[in-house]
Design brief:
The complex is a heterodimer of chains A (203) and B (483). Chain A has a single domain (6-170), classed as Aconitase, domain 4 (Alpha-Beta Barrel), CATH 3.20.19. Chain A has seven helices and eight strands; from the N terminus they run ββαβαβαβαβββααα. Chain A has a four-stranded antiparallel sheet with strand order 1-6-7-8. A four-stranded parallel sheet of chain A has the order 2-3-4-5. Chain A is α/β, with parallel strands linked by helices. Chain B has 483 residues and is of the alpha/beta class. Chain B has three domains: 7-170 and 245-265, Aconitase, domain 3; 172-243 and 275-291, Aconitase, Domain 2, CATH 3.40.1060.10; 338-479, Aconitase, domain 3 (2-Layer Sandwich). Helices cover 33% and strands 16% of the residues of chain B. Chain B has helices at 7-14, 40-49, 85-100, 116-123, 154-163, 188-199, 214-218, 221-229, 245-251, 260-270, 321-334, 360-370, 389-397, 400-407, 456-465, 471-479; strands at residues 16-19, 25-28, 31-34, 59-61, 104-105, 131-134, 148-151, 165-168, 172-179, 207-212, 238-240, 283-288, 295-297, 305-307, 349-352, 381-384, 410-411, 432-435, 450-453. The longest helix of chain B is centred in the first third of the chain and has 16 residues, at 85-100. Chain B is globular. Chain B starts with 6 loop residues before the first helix and ends with a helix. The model of chain B is unreliable at 479-483 (pLDDT under 50). The chains are: A alpha/beta (203), B alpha/beta (483).
Chain lengths: 203, 483
């Protein structure tokens, strides 16, 4: 996983609430056996609408997405995070996220930043451009801040473990496997306490 | 004195492998269901890193999302090729990965094959007090049996395959209490939709729900599976029912369930899995059973619910300006206008199936209305997709397939089917479906499809009249009295 420290750039002023992962990536894109190339299917239905932000050249390649409440609800498909990553998005800012999506995003090196609606509204304005040209947004994971050139400064909370993994680009599976002995001990105890957990063999 | 704990806290505590200073816990996973859509990249990750599946014996693979629901073998028993090359490739990947990593696969033509969330309980793979995960958000279903069950992404699938654990933060707890008795014609699906409408699709975010109250105690296991299934539609990753005698009776004797002394030991522990007197929930939601009516959705979110006797809401009636805009967008997509009676909405498609409503009780409920009746002339396509091969076999033994076929329904092979627009079963753009599935998102049943979520009985009623219909009218007409 790539390290994520600071992200600087334009942001898609999307803002839509209750965006489900079927909207982020429709089911027919889920037939792939690869993690790559899903950006082409990202927001497929919304991109059929003229004037959508995702096809606006002013935002092409923006590393930040600003969304509304409950972003990523619905299906657990990690393809949603892969699709955003493939679009080049490194940070999603919203008032709230679904639990499954924010976990999936984190595991793919995408930072989800929760900010109050008023802050999100302000960042939407900045992303759209105070003078008609989109203005960049600066996200600093170490400092846990989102700032703009207009002196806006918003701080956000993040789980310390997630922060540590994102900053270091760490492989979570590798970290857990290093703890094989604690898992061994748990399994030995469970085999005594709840031996029935191992399913009956099927003939 | 031991601090009183909720059911969730008891299961959580029993699965902590290691607690870290920041509160994150390494949680042991007892059960892992794997399907073809969210696993190929996980197995590939293991292969690239030279890793094994730690506990293949706790893992079960079943294809469901992509499989066409048309026959899978010809008269000679030869496999009928899958037309879509990408679907075929994904199914082939699961058939290759499961044996390579030593995981049991229930294959496409096995009678036990079906939707993972139907197969798990049916095989006795799902047990009370276990932690159960699957790369599918409707894994919450298994909470009906008292399993702490939740959907995970593919990276987590890979993590569980490799380590049999997940790193998690403990969730908050929410009691969802429904007391009283459900009126005739009101089903578990209506309860689930009422909950979505009451708390909204983000209302349960960050929480594990526990369903409490007389309605849930009185509910069958199959009804509980429907309710737990839709926990995620209210934002909760997981929804629990305390296991009881009904649960034990349901599980006993199933192929993968504990036997003999193991069974006795298991039941003894399962009986302790209730929320203690005095345990505190972070949030409590109370709904009166008498307020729950046969329900349909009008919009493109499962929280967009209304009584079937009601009307399409006016977007201006919502307090939140952004909800007003979203509601208007939904109505435009759905081709509905504010004030229109729901019972006047004509439909062209009926889908009875999905992990929400494809079990034998669901099929019985629909068949009991359809017996001796026929779908309306305006219905272009009506289809029943049993949740598993065993459900299908049971239904056929009861003659339900004949009732559906005589009524003008198609009788299909098990799978996820028209719930998610991924296999050939889709609703055409601009056309309207009364569906027993769980999501009415834009494009969910196919690009441009319009979905109205309903119970199996309401789906059957809609098929008979050709429009969204209050099932109670048909109960009246047929029996002379409300059933």
């Amino acid at each position: 996983m790539d390290k994520l420290t600071t992200i600087d750039g334009r942001a898609y002023p999307f803002g839509m609430k209750n965006v489900d992962t079927d909207i982020v990536i429709p089911a027919h894109w889920l037939k792939t056996i690869s993690r790559n190339g899903l950006g082409r299917g990202a927001f497929e239905v919304l991109r059929k609408e003229p004037g959508n932000v995702f096809d606006d050249p002013a935002y092409a390649g923006s590393p930040i997405l600003i969304a509304g409440d409950n972003f990523g609800c619905g299906s657990s498909r990690e393809h949603a995070a892969w699709a955003l990553g493939d679009l080049g998005i490194k940070v999603v800012i919203a008032p709230s996220f679904s639990d499954i999506f924010s976990g999936n995003a984190f595991k793919n090196g995408i930072l989800t930043v929760v900010l109050p609606q008023a802050a999100v509204d302000r960042l939407m304005e900045v992303a759209q451009g105070v003078n008609g040209t989109p203005d960049p947004i600066h996200v600093d994971l170490e400092a846990q801040t989102v700032t703009t050139r207009f002196q806006d400064r918003f701080t956000f909370e993040i789980d310390p473990f997630r922060k540590h993994c994102l900053l270091g680009g760490l492989d979570e599976i590798g970290l857990t496997l290093d703890q094989g002995d604690v898992i061994d001990r748990y399994e030995a105890k469970q085999a005594q306490d709840r031996p029935w957990v191992v399913p009956a063999a099927v003939a | 004195m031991v601090k009183p704990r909720t059911l969730y806290e008891k299961i959580w505590d029993a699965h902590v492998v290691e607690r870290r200073p920041d509160g994150t816990c390494l949680i042991y996973i007892d059960r892992h269901l794997v399907h073809e859509v969210t696993s190929p990249q996980a197995f590939e990750g293991l292969r690239l890193a030279g890793r094994k599946v730690r506990r293949p014996d706790l893992t079960l693979a079943v294809p469901d999302h992509n499989l066409p629901t048309t026959p899978r073998r010809d008269a000679q028993g030869n496999r009928i090729p899958i037309a879509d090359p990408e679907s075929a490739q994904q199914l082939a990947a699961l058939e290759r990965n499961a044996p390579e990593f030593g995981v049991r696969l229930i294959g496409d033509a096995d009678v036990e094959q079906g939707i993972v969330h139907v197969v798990g309980p049916e095989q006795g793979f799902t047990l009370p007090g276990t932690t159960l995960v699957c790369g599918d958000s409707h894994t919450s279903s298994h909470g009906a049996l008292g399993a702490l069950a939740f959907g995970i992404g593919t990276s987590e699938v890979e993590h569980v395959l490799a380590t049999q654990t997940l790193l998690l933060k403990q969730s908050r707890t929410m009691a969802v209490i429904v007391d009283g008795a459900l009126a005739p014609g009101v089903t578990a699906k209506d309860v689930a939709l009422a909950i979505c409408g009451h708390i909204g699709t983000a209302g349960g975010t960050g929480y594990v729900m526990e369903y409490r109250g007389s309605v849930f105690r009185d509910m069958s296991i199959e009804g509980r599976l429907t309710v737990a299934n839709m926990s995620i539609e209210a934002g909760a990753r997981s929804g629990l029912f305390a296991p009881d005698d009904k649960t034990f009776a349901y599980i006993k004797g199933r192929p993968m369930a504990p036997k003999g002394a193991d069974w006795d030991a298991a039941v003894a522990w399962w009986k302790t899995l209730v929320t203690d007197e005095g345990a505190v929930f972070d949030k409590t939601v109370v709904i009166d059973a008498a307020d729950i009516v046969p329900t349909v959705t009008w919009g493109t979110s499962p929280e967009d619910v209304v009584a079937v006797t009601g009307v399409v809401p006016d977007p201006q009636s919502f307090a939140d300006p952004s909800k007003q805009a979203a509601a208007q967008k939904s109505l435009d997509y759905m081709g509905l206008v504010a004030g229109q009676k729901m019972a006047d909405v004509a439909i062209e498609h009926v889908f009875i199936g999905s992990c929400t409503n494809s079990r034998i009780e669901d099929l019985r409920a629909a068949a009991s209305l359809l017996k001796g009746r026929h779908i309306a002339s305006g219905i272009k396509h009506a289809m029943v997709v049993p949740g598993s091969g065993l459900v299908k076999r049971q239904a056929e033994a009861e003659g339900l397939d004949r009732i559906f076929l005589d009524a003008g329904f198609e009788w299909r092979e098990p799978g996820c089917s028209a719930c998610l627009g991924m296999n050939p079963d889709k609703v055409p753009a601009g056309e309207r479906c009364a569906s027993t599935s769980n999501r009415n998102f834009m494009g969910r049943q196919g690009p441009g499809s319009r979905t109205h979520l309903v119970s199996p009985a309401m789906a059957a009623a809609a098929a008979i009249t050709g429009r969204l219909t209050d099932v109670r009218e048909l109960l009246h007409n047929k029996e002379g009295v409300v059933a």
